[in-house]
């Protein structure tokens, strides 16, 4: 491990509810996040997106592409016949059976990109997927196609949700989830890099979202065996009525936020010779080093 190695911490689910968004903005203002991933298909996105655009100069802001929560932005009579996205298990099943209506999914991808850009007035710094749906067969290719069409190569990074087996086993905590996603993400990193998109090297943040667990202790495991471009996802926020209606992950969001705002996070990082940083900034620094005369 390199001294002062950069670790990126990304808060997922921005704009899921007002409470979640407000909590993420608190952590962002405190300098404890270096990336935020936004859900854009919900009614809170336009207002909360404008607030994020005013306060995100020191973080990468990305599209949290969504096909499993809430309502689509486009007509999807085959994929979402009742007007609501299907659950994750059904999407995974359809992806591996090659039964996804790709014409509908491509249209939804474009609409979510459009809605992000309409509010932020710029393309996303990075792209990932709610419940990691962006790594699924078919969806991954359509998403990378859309990014290529928007000329995001060299400008936006994508999340590789599948870490190395040795790193997952070294962390041990929530290894079952990490291994499941590693299986789903097989080949994703190779395809993304072949098409000119940078990806993180190292990924952690899997949780059982159980309120009785000590999140600080769990977060400490995320720092074991970091990759060279290590990315940690988190789900901080305040619990509110909207959140309780939309998502089963509630109390633990408060616990994650409390940890991020505490002195324990910088202490953990310093002890391990790590520091918070943006993956987009790391990419620019690397490009500058490679371009400099030898």
UniProtKB/TrEMBL annotation:
What's an example of a GO molecular-function annotation for this chain? Answer: deacetylase activity
The record's Pfam families line, in alphabetical order, gives: YdjC
Q: Which GO terms describe its biological process?
A: carbohydrate metabolic process
Which keywords does the record carry? Carbohydrate metabolism, Hydrolase, Magnesium, Metal-binding
Cofactor or coenzyme needed = Mg(2+)
Q: Which domain of life is it from?
A: Bacteria
PANTHER family from the UniProt entry:
CARBOHYDRATE DEACETYLASE (PTHR31609:SF1), YDJC DEACETYLASE FAMILY MEMBER (PTHR31609)
The name this protein goes by in its record:
ChbG/HpnK family deacetylase
């Amino acid at each position: 491990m390199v001294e002062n190695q950069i670790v990126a911490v990304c808060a997922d689910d921005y704009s899921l509810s007002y409470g979640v968004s407000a909590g993420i903005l608190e952590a962002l203002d405190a300098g404890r996040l270096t990336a935020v991933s936004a859900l854009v298909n919900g009614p809170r996105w336009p207002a909360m997106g404008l607030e994020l655009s005013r306060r995100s100069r020191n973080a990468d802001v990305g599209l949290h592409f969504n096909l499993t929560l809430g309502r689509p932005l486009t007509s999807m009579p085959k994929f979402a016949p009742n007007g609501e996205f299907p659950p994750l298990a059904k999407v995974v099943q359809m992806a591996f059976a090659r039964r996804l209506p790709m014409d509908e999914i491509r249209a939804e991808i474009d609409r979510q990109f459009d809605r992000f850009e309409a509010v932020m007035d710029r393309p996303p710094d990075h792209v990932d997927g709610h419940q990691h749906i962006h790594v699924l067969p078919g969806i991954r290719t359509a998403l990378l196609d859309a990014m290529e069409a928007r000329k995001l190569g060299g400008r936006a990074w994508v999340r590789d949700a599948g870490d190395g087996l040795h790193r997952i086993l070294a962390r041990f905590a929530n290894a079952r989830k990490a291994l499941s996603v590693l299986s789903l993400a097989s080949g994703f990193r190779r395809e993304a890099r072949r098409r000119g998109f940078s990806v993180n090297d190292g990924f952690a943040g899997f949780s059982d979202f159980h309120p009785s667990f000590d999140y600080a202790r769990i977060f400490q495991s995320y720092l074991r065996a970091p990759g060279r471009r290590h990315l940690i996802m988190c789900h901080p926020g305040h619990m509110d009525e909207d959140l309780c209606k939309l998502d089963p992950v509630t109390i633990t969001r408060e616990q994650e936020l409390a940890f991020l705002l505490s002195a324990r996070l910088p202490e953990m990082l310093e002890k391990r010779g790590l520091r918070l940083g943006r993956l987009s900034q790391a990419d620019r620094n690397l490009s500058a080093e490679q371009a400099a005369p030898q």
